Amino acid sequence: MKKQFKLLGIHSFLLLAIMLLSISCARNPVTGKRELSLMSTKKEVQLGAEYDPSIVASFGKYEDAKMQGFIDRKGQQMAAISHRSNLNYEFKILDSPVVNAFAVPGGYVYFTRGIMAHFNNEAEFAGVLGHEIGHITARHSAKQFSRQQLAQVGFIVGMIASEQFRQFADVTQQSLGLIFLKFGRDAESQSDELGVEYSTKIGYDAHQMANFFETLDRMRGQQGGEPIPTFLSTHPDPGDRNRKVGELADEWENKTGKTNLKVNRDSYLRMIDGLIYGEDPRQGYVENNMFYHPEMKFQYPVPRNWRTQNSPSQVQHAPENGEALLMLHIAQEKTLVEASNNFVTNNKLQLVGSKDVRVHGLPAKAVIADQANPNDPNATLRILTYFIQYNNIIYKLHGLSLQKDFNQYEPYFEDSMENFKPLTDQNKINVKPEKIKIVTVKKNTTLSQVFIDNKIPTDRHEELAILNSMRLNDQIKSGTLIKVVEK
Q1: pLDDT in tens, 290-306
Q2: Which domain holds residue 458?
Q3: Residues 78 and 213 in one domain
Q4: 3-class secondary structure for 397-436?
Q5: What are phi and psi of 220, to 5 degrees?
Q6: Is the pLDDT score of 117 beyond 50?
């Protein structure tokens, strides 16, 4: 009887497995092959709609009617010829200086203003647009999510300190993880192919897509720049990418029989004239170890050599070792008592101490609390929080570290919190961001001479050469449009 029961169990298991496979296998719209999928199209659309608000809140939306109209037109044109034209696609520009583009399931595609600044023609944009739509049409994001292979990329948004501090960020961490899905090389190769196919079909020269990847490679090695461009962090090079994209471009030109494929360099450059370049100090900036927020008119000191990550929803500062975190965001509550009580209760903290204080004349409440880790008694967190009321807003300044490290970092936390104060210096309030300026070269010359003529500091020449996808010794003809920056 036992043997028979065991055999019946195996047969039942196999039958159940077959039933599950039949339910969860779907046909890939791109390859036509059946594959395991734990997410229906309806669920993809629902997921994208749920995450979109938190993505926009985390980065902020860049408002530029001309650029938004452009990505909408090109995006919808490309979506219509894609393998999943039935989806309702949305295309948005995010107010972030990082060079990145990404897509989430359901038809949501995002470009940062940082990547828009680094494109040098419409064809480069179209290639990356097709690449991101390809991630959606080939269901790469859906498959990654189904397998729960979410991967955070450090120091972009989200935490810049240890994972154990993550819960205290007022952002949807799951959605931030989804933003930074890191695809495998096979998925990247397939999206490169789709980017070439889609951009060629709507009339663009897909060879320009390879040129943009070369720009990213040059950014990787730029002294003083990011160790690796964000786009390459989340979109790993499948190997020999530039050559393969060039060959695919030739292949799709032959397949479609299209000639006179568009590049549209000048029209693109004129469109991005005035685009904010780099960090926007109006949203907050650090200068001489002081964080200033010109629009909300406050300031506080930041520990020397701590890294800063600023987003519309919060500001984070952390030492290189990640052992502590100083974080600022806004409370939703209307009173200091309500804000402090909810913070302790909602995070299941053990209150150590609480007192009413004044911070440069502003009413405030200081709270110290612990959060024990049931799995590791040595991993108890200690949190110092100042709730500060200013201009009818309650600001929360958190200082977090492991309990064993707290005495080391408490003076840094207190210095920032006790020196939070109104910003009145008009020079700090009226600070302006750098913007892209498109200039017309007046004579045949070199790129380096163009920069000299436009009073660009020498130490930024290579940065702007990469921005223009050119070399400093390139010969520039009279009448050529070139990107420079100005305030």
Answers
A1: 999 999 999 999 999 99
A2: 434-486
A3: yes
A4: EEEEEEHHHHHHHHHHHHHHHHCCEECCCHHHHCCCCEEE
A5: -55, -40
A6: yes
